[in-house]
């Protein structure tokens, strides 16, 4: 990720981050810089948050820009809003960096249209596991608020994936909000962002490199943690026997797939009728080994899902949160994703301009195959 | 009804019966909960090698999947499978058969008086030693185990009388297996097995305490749902924290659609529709239709809800889905004098037209 820090504008003191953000959006709506804002809001029962698209400014007072939990990856919400294309309203979304990255991937997968969407993000301290939050909403709310206020980026109270996330700050958004020690700064990462800042009558004039340096220190702590987690996961998943052990308690609910922002298929191949087979075959399969476990092909499902989405995995960790039997899905998927993405020199969510590796044909990647194709072509006279 | 008393513990008696049926070629396999050597997890297995029958644990108190759903996906088979499943799984299977999903001829169904199951999350965390002990103790004393699912603690349909074979578990002696055989066909299958079969009927007198206790628990639990709220506001209160993962739907044995309407393109709204709603309301939740999905699912399947509680167990947001659906389902089913899973011949109310149901319309 490009770490060059653009100039920022101070919006206000750090202590009042919520009020500052809300008033920024109120002004933006009033001056018609934007028409709607997507922000988290507490659900009526008070123990969770939901994504609310706000048009009427008065609803902004109920919004909570920095929600302690991430019940749904915002990319899902943006997909449902924009899958059918552009609209007349300009929408600003303030979402976590991993949600920005998932959104960027969905653009490449033709599920999201960003023509009228302004992506905004902030330095993210992580998210509280939903399970913990629902059990103790008030306590967790306070705890998170205090971490958010003090800028505690390495709290053990956050989700496991947040603990080793190194992409928690400036990412491929249009606008970045630096929640620095010196106050909240807004800066732009794109032409759309420049336009927003200009239309909001702000003039970026402050250098943020001191804060960037601080974030780099946090990043290095996370990097160390990441290496530890990956080393452990490597040991735990090495070979099909170990891989099977990790996933053997899978009940086949496919919650991991359905909460995954990248897994966008309405009809997953693994739930489709392709897998319905003559059941006498089940007996034949059982007889080969003496027994057949249910759900059938549970490892195949996870490997299949990995091949389908690991290149775009943004490590948001929702899969682990949604697993009813506590399989550390996100650790495994993040670990594999880091490798597959490195293999293609690709980084999920970095830019909408990067081509998806699987859709990008480079003849040099398939050297051996290229030779083979040439020789077959010759034999069949196709080149003649 | 026929009866057999075998002087062995239940697990052994069932394993030997299964082994005999496999050996004699009368069944193609045995479907049961299993725990293989070196494996931490308990899941369902289709066993064809009788040497592996020692690993089946038919009465283990966990439900990784509702087996009714699993069995409904079996297409017609040459030989039947001996399926040892819980009462609610059996009832779910019966409901799937009515929906032209399951093939009943595929299975010789064995169920038992069921004490309930331990929640999946608790089981996944690893059970402390005394959890299983306490469970087994309660079951053997004919009491309602306390560490089970909310649904199980109130379940009143735990002694099925329609499966091919019924094994007495609640209040049963440890070293004697009491087995009830419901039909002559199944009795015929066991001929030559050395099991002495006599006339006899299942007596539910021993279940009296548990039945009474569960009726009370049910009232309490159903009232507690009312306390959260009623009507649309109540539904918003209960389902407001739904994250839309549809886990409840995918594990539900009754929800059999390959492609749920709510996940289909029917629910992809044009931007103009979304913007119109925004103009009216000022704000809109995304993804939309959170409560609508649950009401929709409820109207599709609640009258066939067997109350297994799998939906609650997989809900990442801890919503008591199973209690809400069970309560609504029972209320609807009662209107039609219908009990889901009671009888395979009993038609699903919405698939059956009775002229007298709609007198106003008749006029």
Overall description:
- The complex is a heterodimer of chains A (384) and B (363).
- Chain A is α/β, with parallel strands linked by helices.
- Chain A folds into 2 domains: 8-208, no CATH class; 229-357, no CATH class.
- Helix content of chain A is 43%, strand content 11%.
- Chain A has helices spanning 17-30, 74-82, 97-108, 130-135, 137-150, 160-163, 191-199, 209-237, 239-247, 255-259, 280-289, 298-309, 318-322, 329-343, 367-379, and strands spanning 8-12, 36-42, 49-54, 91-94, 117-122, 175-180, 183-188, 291-293.
- A 7-stranded mixed sheet of chain A has the order 1-7-6-5-4-2-3.
- In chain A, α2 (74-82) packs parallel to α3 and α8 (209-237) packs across α14.
- The model of chain A has no long low-confidence stretch (mean pLDDT 92).
- Chain B is an alpha/beta fold.
- Chain B folds into 2 domains: 2-210, no CATH class; 221-362, no CATH class.
- In chain B, 39% of the residues lie in helices and 11% in strands.
- Chain B contains 15 helices and 9 strands.
- Chain B has helices at residues 10-23, 67-72, 87-98, 120-125, 129-140, 150-154, 184-189, 208-228, 231-239, 247-251, 271-281, 290-301, 310-314, 321-335, 359-362, and strands spanning 2-6, 29-34, 43-47, 81-84, 107-112, 165-167, 177-181, 197-199, 283-286.
- In chain B, a hairpin with an 8-residue loop joins β2 (29-34) and β3 (43-47).
- The radius of gyration of chain B is 22 Å and the shape is globular.
- At the A-B interface, β2, β3, α2, α4 and α10 of A face β3, α4, α9, α10 and α11 of B.
- β8 of chain A pairs antiparallel with β3 (43-47) of chain B.
């Amino acid at each position: 990720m490009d770490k060059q820090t653009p100039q920022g504008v101070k919006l206000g003191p750090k202590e009042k981050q919520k009020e500052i953000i809300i008033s920024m959006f109120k002004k933006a709506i009033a001056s018609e810089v934007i028409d709607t804002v997507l922000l988290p809001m507490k659900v009526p029962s008070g123990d969770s948050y939901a994504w609310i698209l706000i048009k009427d400014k008065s609803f902004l007072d109920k919004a909570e820009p920095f929600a302690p939990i991430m019940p749904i990856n915002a990319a899902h919400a943006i997909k449902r809003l924009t899958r059918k294309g552009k609209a007349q309203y300009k929408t600003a979304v303030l979402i976590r960096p991993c949600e920005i990255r998932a959104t960027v991937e969905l653009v490449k997968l033709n599920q999201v249209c960003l023509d009228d969407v302004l992506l905004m993000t902030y330095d993210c301290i992580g998210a509280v596991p939903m399970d913990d939050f629902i059990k103790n909403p008030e306590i967790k709310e306070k705890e998170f608020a205090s971490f958010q206020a003090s800028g505690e980026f390495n709290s053990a109270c956050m989700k496991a994936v947040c603990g080793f996330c190194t992409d928690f700050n400036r990412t491929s958004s249009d606008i970045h909000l630096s929640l620095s020690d010196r106050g909240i700064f807004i800066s732009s990462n794109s032409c759309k962002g420049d336009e927003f800042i200009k239309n909001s009558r702000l003039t970026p004039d402050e250098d943020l490199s001191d804060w960037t340096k601080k974030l780099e220190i946090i990043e290095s702590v996370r990097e160390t943690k990441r290496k530890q987690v990956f080393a452990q996961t490597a040991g735990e998943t090495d070979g099909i026997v170990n891989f099977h052990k990790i996933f053997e308690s899978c009940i086949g609910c496919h919650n991991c797939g359905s909460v995954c922002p990248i897994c966008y298929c309405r009809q997953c191949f693994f739930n489709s009728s392709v897998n319905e087979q003559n059941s006498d075959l089940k007996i034949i399969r059982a007889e080969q080994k003496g027994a057949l476990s249910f759900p059938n092909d549970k490892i195949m499902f996870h490997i299949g899902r990995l091949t389908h989405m690991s290149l775009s995995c943004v490590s948001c960790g929702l899969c682990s949160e949604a697993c009813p039997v506590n399989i550390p899905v996100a650790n495994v998927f993040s670990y594999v994703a880091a490798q597959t993405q490195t293999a293609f020199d690709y980084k999920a969510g970095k830019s909408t301009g990067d081509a998806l590796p699987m859709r990008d044909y480079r003849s040099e990647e398939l050297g051996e195959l290229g030779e083979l194709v040439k020789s077959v072509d010759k034999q069949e006279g196709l080149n003649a | 009804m026929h009866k057999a008393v075998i002087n062995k513990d239940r697990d052994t008696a069932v394993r030997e019966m299964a082994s005999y049926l496999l050996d004699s070629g009368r069944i193609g396999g045995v479907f049961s909960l299993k725990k293989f050597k070196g494996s931490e997890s308990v899941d369902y297995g289709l066993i064809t090698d009788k040497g592996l029958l020692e690993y089946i644990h038919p009465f283990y108190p966990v439900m990784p999947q509702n087996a009714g759903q699993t069995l409904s996906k079996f297409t017609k088979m040459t030989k039947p499978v001996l399926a040892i499943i819980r009462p609610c799984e059996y009832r779910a299977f019966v409901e799937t058969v009515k929906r032209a999903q399951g093939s009943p001829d595929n299975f010789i169904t064995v169920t038992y008086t069921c004490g309930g199951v331990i929640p999946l999350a608790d089981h996944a965390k690893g059970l402390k030693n005394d959890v299983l002990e306490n469970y087994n103790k309660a079951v053997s004393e004919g009491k309602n185990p306390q560490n089970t699912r909310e649904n199980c603690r109130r379940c009143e349909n735990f002694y099925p009388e329609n499966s091919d074979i019924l094994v007495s578990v609640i209040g049963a002696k440890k070293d004697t297996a009491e087995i009830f055989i419901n039909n002559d066909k199944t009795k015929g299958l066991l001929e030559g097995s050395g099991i002495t079969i006599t006339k006899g009927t299942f007596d539910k007198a021993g279940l009296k305490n548990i039945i009474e206790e569960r009726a009370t628990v049910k009232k309490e639990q159903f009232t507690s749902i009312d306390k959260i709220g009623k009507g649309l506001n109540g539904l918003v209160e209960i389902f407001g924290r739904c994250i839309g993962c549809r886990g409840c739907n995918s594990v539900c044995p009754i929800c059999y659609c390959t492609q749920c309407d709510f996940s289909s393109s029917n629910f992809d709204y044009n931007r103009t529709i979304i913007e119109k709603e925004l103009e009216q309301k000022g704000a809109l939740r995304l993804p939309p239709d959170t409560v609508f999905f649950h009401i929709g699912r409820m109207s599709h399947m609640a009258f066939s809800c067997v109350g297994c509680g799998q939906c609650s167990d997989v809900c990442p947001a801890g919503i008591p889905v199973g209690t809400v659906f069970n309560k609504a389902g029972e209320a609807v089913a009662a209107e039609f004098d219908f009990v889901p899973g009671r009888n395979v011949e009993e038609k699903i109310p919405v698939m059956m037209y009775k002229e007298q149901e709609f007198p106003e319309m008749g006029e």
